[in-house]
Amino acid sequence: MTLQDLPLDKDGFLVNLNDWSPTIAEEIAAHENIALTPEHWEIIDVVRDFYDEFGLSPVNRVLVKTTGAKLGQDKGNSIYLMKLFPGGPAKIACKIAGLPKPNNCL
């Protein structure tokens, strides 16, 4: 199954969380002009773990704090996350991770 076969919301987020896979993540990332590296996958794992624990997608401030706690302060800062996910780290990371759009993202 490819991204083209899956239902997306008006912002391009997966409608069904169970449709997500690493292959789909790669396709979503490519659509966002991002080539996923191990550093991207670390953040994808952080947002997916956060969603599993709390049932919601992290907003930027929470993503920075959670990333710092899990991966260290060198990765838990806005500049690092913005370099990986330009245009809104929480929004783009959650989109690639197959999660709903964070509540306060436009």
UniProtKB/TrEMBL annotation:
Active site location: C105
Localization per record: Cytoplasm
Gene3D superfamilies cross-referenced by the UniProt entry: 3.30.1420.10, DsrC-like protein, C-terminal domain
GO molecular function: sulfur carrier activity; transferase activity
Chief localization: cytoplasm
Coiled-coil residues: none
BP GO terms, sorted: tRNA wobble position uridine thiolation
Record GO cellular component, one term: cytoplasm
Domain of life the protein comes from: Bacteria
NCBIfam families: dsrC_tusE_dsvC
Protein name, as recorded: Sulfurtransferase
